[in-house]
Design goal:
single chain, 80 residues, mainly alpha, 0% strand, disordered N terminus
């Protein structure tokens, strides 16, 4: 099996450890820089734009929105 096939296989089916690390990275990004956390979880869409505006106005509304979008509302992931 080639290196490329092993790498692509591991990306399409991440291990539980990789999944946990991605969730931890997303949580840290959400707390430190809310738009980055939303972008990691949801992509560069409407939620990201709304969160960026809220964070630029004041940090706390952006943080609340990011936690709501990423962990309360659920939905699909943009990466992994």
């Amino acid at each position: 099996m080639s290196i490329y096939r092993r790498a692509s296989a591991s990306l399409s089916h991440p291990s539980p450890e990789t999944e946990t690390m991605l969730e931890l990275l997303t949580l840290i990004a959400t707390v430190l820089l809310p738009p980055l956390g939303v972008a990691l979880k949801k992509g560069l869409g409407t939620d990201f734009i709304i969160n960026l505006i809220l964070t630029l106005i004041f940090f706390v509304p952006g943080l609340i929105h990011a936690i709501y979008v990423n962990y309360v509302a659920g939905g699909t992931r943009a990466i992994a």
